[in-house]
Amino acid sequence: MNSLQIALRVLRVDRRTRTSAILTAIGVAVATGLVLLLATLPFATQNREQRALWQGEHFYSRGSDVPAKLLFSSSKDYFDGQQIIRVDVALAPGVTAAGVQLPPGVPQLPGPGETVVSPALGRLLQGHPADQLGDRFGKPVGAIGEDGLRFPEQLVALTGHTADAMPESANQVPGFPAGKASPDPLLMLLSWVGIIVLLVPSLVLVASSARLTAARRERRLAAIRLAGATPGQVTNMVAAETTLSAGIGALLGLLISPALHGLASFVPWAGGTWLASDFALPVGLTVFIVLAIPVLVVLAGVLGLRRVLKNPLFATGGHTKKPLRWWRLLALPAAGLFFLVAVTTAKDSGGITLVMAGLFLLVGSAAIVGPWVTSAVGGTFVRIWRRPSALLAGRRLRDDPKGAYRASAGIVLAVFAGSMALTLLPTFESMAGGGRSFVDSVLYVDTDNQHAGKIVEQANGSLRKYGQSEQAVAVGEVYLVEGEGNNRTGHRALVMTCADAVKLTRFDLTAENCTGGPAVFGDSALDLARYKLTDNWEGPAVAVKSGTRAEAIHLPDADLSSTSIIDPAALPDGFTPKYVTVVAPTTDANREIVRTALAGPAAGEEIGSRDQYLFNQQTELGDLRRVTVIGLIAAGVLAGCSAAVATAGSVMDRRRTFGALMAAGTPVRVLARALRMEAALPALVATIGAGIVGVLVGVGLYSMVDERGIVLSPWLLAPVVLGVGVALLGASVCTPALKRVQAEPLADE
């Protein structure tokens, strides 16, 4: 009879072994499915960016020997809080539409006054008046297919123009942007963190499931070994038994991965959901993952046979376990030092491989330090408490700290992940903000002094046609500087009347400030004898008109301190700002109408506002919150399951001991209390440590993004509290397990 046949026979006749094998297979399936999902995320972002490459959001024109066929401009438009990608094109002189290769999903090249839109944008055009949206783009003549969209809900407009109507910033290109897209770096980082943080709890669940029958299997293998089986034969038996359950689990994980991908496609990222085809993992990587996880499980099972192979009498008769050494505590600072070095050198090396390796070492060090902490907690129980349940719990923690820690291992990692995430999120949220000097309701278009007059005239004409009383104004941009060359210092100034500044800016100017003639307003009263005007930082500077006053005003926001307001009457004769911003006030009722009025004369130049400046920030924060919640729920569920299975396995391992105690008259409630103390108190100590380490790791990861201080939130205590709660919840299975032991004859063991 070969090893596989023996494994199958054991599974048929031993119900507990069969239960352990089923739970092990489920754990391997969960681990395989999660890793397959997380590993495919970078490829998914690359696939969606590849489809949207033609939209030119990240396109920068470079010199080319190929003749230009298109004038191309890409910008962002907004409607009702939604972002629209606007692509404006025009044929170069002498080029026909047939000579331009269209990107996938684009049915035709629109002519002047025509537009091709995505289906989602087409529905918006049909559902809203033209003065709110439709007049910005022209007549719709086609629909963009899924092959040309980043995500199904994306709002995209490809608008045609004549060459002379294109914006000044348009690029002359030989065709639509093409090449090879790059994956989203943020989601790539999160996927690696997820693999490290979620894979380990999954493997802990597998290990806990395998331990359900550890004592019985160890005695069975020891008996076979004493009966004459060679170490190789015993190893083959365990490898066959573990391979059977782990292999089935890996295949099951591969089978459920399409369902996980389907669920993941409904989770928004960067403004939209996904296509099912986005989650395509290379075949080689898929095969590697499906084979690697079972191999790790089998290897762990085989390595656990050392005692049975060397000293089978110890497994059958019991033995005294060696105490854990203090040097285990060095694993955590050693891993922390490696992580610190990796973080501090990441910017210079330009990669995160060492950072992820350091994170993995920190997670792995918990398996080394955790049992020692558990043993220390057990020693404290034995020395201090005298209640029967506390003494039983302390002796268990002291005698088998590795087995006792197993119930807390997944919880510790979940708390670590939660503390790390709740350190980073409030800090990222505190970074949100900023924007231009205008009030939130203002819309603006950046241009130059050659085009500003035309934009203002046409926009105001459209506003009158739409029945709006608002009017666009041109706001120049100059610099108030002192010194020359490299020693020049100063700041930006907006050229606008005081009355317009009261209505359009965030400077808290009032009508009282507007009396007394031309002025320069800022956070301090400038010495205008020292400061001069220039339309660019390095150009020649001229003095303001005599009689101009400098007035200090209260600034409500710190980001306004580097900007001043200067009245046009203070400019010297003949001085014209080179750069101009066309500004138009809006209300909640007419904001989209005003935007439409600006869109026509702007001809593809981006129309901005403060709330749109914050759009990407809020989108990224929403993505991070969503991913954090999903990740922590998954980690918590895995940790709770592993704690429950480990507690049940602890009871099964000690059936003889518990049976003898019950036969001697020990109440089940005392034993149940002891088991709950075994789970809760080490979990409390370990989770506090994991929470502290998680905060420190969060600080380290944040330092790679920004050097400003971290923001600590009271919510940092939540993972520790929830971790202890999950440990108690998992330990609640001890009472049913003990009652099962009580119901079965002790002679069965």
Q: What would a concise description of this structure say?
A:
The protein has 749 residues and is of the alpha+beta class.
- Whole-number count of domains: 4
Low-confidence stretches are none
Major sheet size, sense and barrel closure = 9 strands, mixed
How many helices in DSSP terms? Answer: 22
Mean of residue pLDDT values: 83
* CA-based gyration radius: 34 Å
Cα shape: elongated
N-C termini distance: 26 Å
- Which secondary-structure class do the elements indicate? alpha+beta
Q: Which bin fits the share of residues in helices?
A: 40-55%
Tell me the fraction of residues in β-strands, as a range: 5-15%
- Beta strands, count: 15
Write the layout of secondary structure elements.
Elements: H1 3-13, H2 15-51, E1 70-79, E2 82-91, E3 114-117, H3 119-127, E4 139-143, E5 155-160, E6 171-173, H4 185-210, H5 214-226, H6 231-264, H7 283-303, H8 306-310, H9 312-317, H10 331-349, H11 353-384, H12 388-399, H13 401-431, E7 443-448, H14 449-465, E8 473-482, E9 489-495, H15 498-504, E10 519-522, E11 532-534, E12 549-552, E13 563-566, E14 579-584, H16 591-602, E15 607-608, H17 610-613, H18 615-653, H19 655-663, H20 668-703, H21 718-731, H22 734-743
Parallel strand pairs: 2-5, 3-4, 9-13, 10-12
Antiparallel strand pairs: 1-2, 1-6, 3-5, 7-14, 7-15, 8-9, 8-11, 8-14, 10-13
Helix pairs in contact: 1-2, 1-6, 2-4, 2-6, 2-7, 4-11, 4-13, 4-18, 6-7, 10-11, 10-20, 11-12, 11-13, 11-20, 12-13, 12-20, 13-18, 13-20, 13-21, 14-16, 18-21, 18-22, 20-21, 20-22
Write up this protein.
With 749 residues, this protein is of the alpha+beta class. The protein folds into four domains: 1-52 and 190-317, no CATH class; 57-173, no CATH class; 370-432 and 614-749, no CATH class; 443-611, no CATH class. The protein is 54% helix and 11% strand. The protein contains 22 helices and 15 strands. The protein has helices spanning 3-13, 15-51, 119-127, 185-210, 214-226, 231-264, 283-303, 306-310, 312-317, 331-349, 353-384, 388-399, 401-431, 449-465, 498-504, 591-602, 610-613, 615-653, 655-663, 668-703, 718-731, 734-743, and strands spanning 70-79, 82-91, 114-117, 139-143, 155-160, 171-173, 443-448, 473-482, 489-495, 519-522, 532-534, 549-552, 563-566, 579-584, 607-608. The strands form two sheets. Strands 7, 8, 9, 10, 11, 12, 13, 14 and 15 form a nine-stranded mixed beta sheet that branches. A six-stranded mixed beta sheet has the order 4-3-5-2-1-6. The longest helix is centred in the last third of the chain and has 39 residues, at 615-653. It is elongated, with a radius of gyration of 34 Å. The two termini are 26 Å apart. GO terms for molecular function: transmembrane transporter activity. This is ABC transporter permease.
